[in-house]
Amino acid sequence: MLCSITFLLTSLLLAAENESAGPQSNEVAEQVDQRLRAELLGTPIGTLALRADDATFLRRAFLDLVGELPSEEDLLAFLLDDAPNKREKLLDALLDDPEFGLHWGRYWRDVILYRRTEPRAVRSSQALSDFLRVEINRNTPWDAIARAFITANGDVRENGATGLIMAHGGRPEETVAELSRIFMGIQIQCAQCHDHPSDRWKRQQFHQLAAFFPRVAIRPQRNGNERTFLVEGRDSFPRRRRRMNNNRYVGTAEHLMPDLEHPTQPGTTTRPVFFVNGKRLPLGVDDAVRRQQLGRWMTSPDNPWFAAAVVNRLWSELVGAGFYEPVDDLGPDRDCVAPQTMHYLVAAFQTNDHDLKWLFRTIMSTSAYQRESRSRPESEETPFLANRPQRLRADTIYNTLTSALAIRPRLQSSRRRPQGGVRRLFNATFGYDPSSRRDSISGSVQQTLLMMNSRIVSTSVQARPGTQLGRLLRQVKDNRRLISRLYLRTLARQPTETEEQICLDYLQEISSREEAFEDILWSLINSTEFLHRN
After folding, report:
1. Per-domain residue ranges for the chain?
2. pLDDT for residue 440
3. If pLDDT is split at 50, 70 and 90, which confidence band does 330 have?
């Protein structure tokens, strides 16, 4: 496990250099850039992208941290600010914005629920988002958040930390597979029925991990008039129990590893063992002890994969490509791009007590993040030469559309589709698994139709009283100024000379000023640029 050894040595060296406090974001960012240059020197081809201009950086930071577009006022104030540290000040302000926790709470909600095997887990969605929003805004350390998911009990509509267990109906195999994938980036589920075909993990190790969760039950109940479920760790079991199809309404005292040669037999009683370090618990241990101990072992600094998983995932989200791809497939048998750089960043993250805001600030302070974006290369080239465009997630598209068009609640609501239903419509249409490789995500006919023909959009781009465009047409008589205002509101930048001229030519062709600007606004919100973060 060369990666693990390198990581641990880096951790010890960094800890010795920073005994009193963790390293500052800017210091680590500079070191990351230096190490990347040294480590990637001499690898294939390509030219280094220039530093992104202020308008691009502003839009990128807003979309990445709070999932919204900057306002016209935000953009003008930022462009006029001549302070050398204005980008650092912007990051601090956005990280302290309540929308930061809301945006990233929804991100992790999607990570957890997108691969759910229990359809009824959608009932935990709001509580899950709320839990994450609060903890992320509090800057609760990432290891504490992870332990909350591992040890959670309670009503899935009230305790959002139960959402991950509920997402898989409390079934031990699915639950621990997702815990390993999300919090360590190790897809040990491939070892459930046989030894892992491409990693060193054995089938026995998978079932020893499942043995931390046999006593968890998912019990249906009512909370007032609403049906809900209770996640409950139990330590006593009825002698006689009604058997149902793989239900987890009761749980079992111990986990049984199935006998593949004799599938009708009960299987082998398996004790809890954590596959990363080989530490184990005896049979008969209470549920609380099992899960608490697993949480401590999984989030320990001695486990290199815990911190590495979130560092790799967030680097990929922000820079556009990870040290490991896909972001949830790490491990000692996987290839890492620039491993020394990654290990340094992981060690610094650990030294800073798994501080998520510190990690965001650090990555976004690197040159790798702040470079101009380029399309993903079709052929091999030196990695991290440029930032990579990211297709916006569903919640962000909804936010940017409603802010760009100033859509009011009364336009979002109807008797058939209450307020909030439109966001769900966008989630259903534009949603994708955040753990997927970005080059595998593409648009669809349904997405195009929603943006081009839906009543939500067509009503809001009309030049009539009560709409934003209608107000702007009355207030701004100069066509050049109005074109600029529309670009600022939709793309958070000024139009280029070519774009401005195209719009002016179109205004000359169309006899109606209102109709021409409706078409211009419609084309902006249906542009590729509007749907991507560059």
Report:
1. 2-99+304-371+381-388, 100-299, 391-533
2. 85
3. very high
Residue-wise pLDDT tens digits, 374-433: 987 766 678 899 999 999 999 999 999 999 999 865 434 333 444 468 899 999 999 999
Residue 84: what residue type?
A: P
Q: Which residues contact 321 (CB under 8 A, 6 or more apart)?
A: 337, 376, 383, 384, 388, 438
Question: Within 352-406, where are the H helices?
Answer: 356-364, 367-370, 394-404
How many residues are listed for the chain in this entry? 534
Q: Are 256 and 270 in contact (CB under 8 A)?
A: yes
- Cβ proximity of 256 and 179 under 8 Å: no
3-state secondary structure at position 134: helix
Q: Please classify residue 415 by burial: count the beta carbons closer than 10 Å to its beta carbon, then call 0-12 exposed, 13-18 middle and 19+ buried.
A: exposed
The token pair that represents 140 in the structure block: 């609760």
| Residues 121-133: b if buried by 16+ CB within 10 A, e if exposed | bebbbebbbbbbb
Quick one: tokens of 444?
A: 């669809």
R_g over Cα of the chain: 26
Q: 164 and 175 in contact (C-beta within 8 Å)?
A: yes
First-residue to last-residue Cα distance in the chain:
37
The pair of structure tokens assigned to 157 is: 């509509």
161-215: per-residue pLDDT in tens? 999 999 999 999 999 999 999 999 999 988 778 777 777 889 999 999 999 999 9
- Which three-class secondary structure state does DSSP give residue 73? helix
**Phi and psi at residue 223, to the nearest 5°:** -120, 95
Structural contact between residues 293 and 211, judged by C-beta atoms closer than 8 angstroms: no
Contacts of 54 (CB under 8 A, 6+ apart): 78, 79, 86
Pairwise CA distance, residues 505 & 116, whole Å: 51
pLDDT tens figures, 16-38 = 444 444 678 999 999 999 999 89
Quickly count: other Cβ atoms within 10 Å of residue 74's Cβ: 18
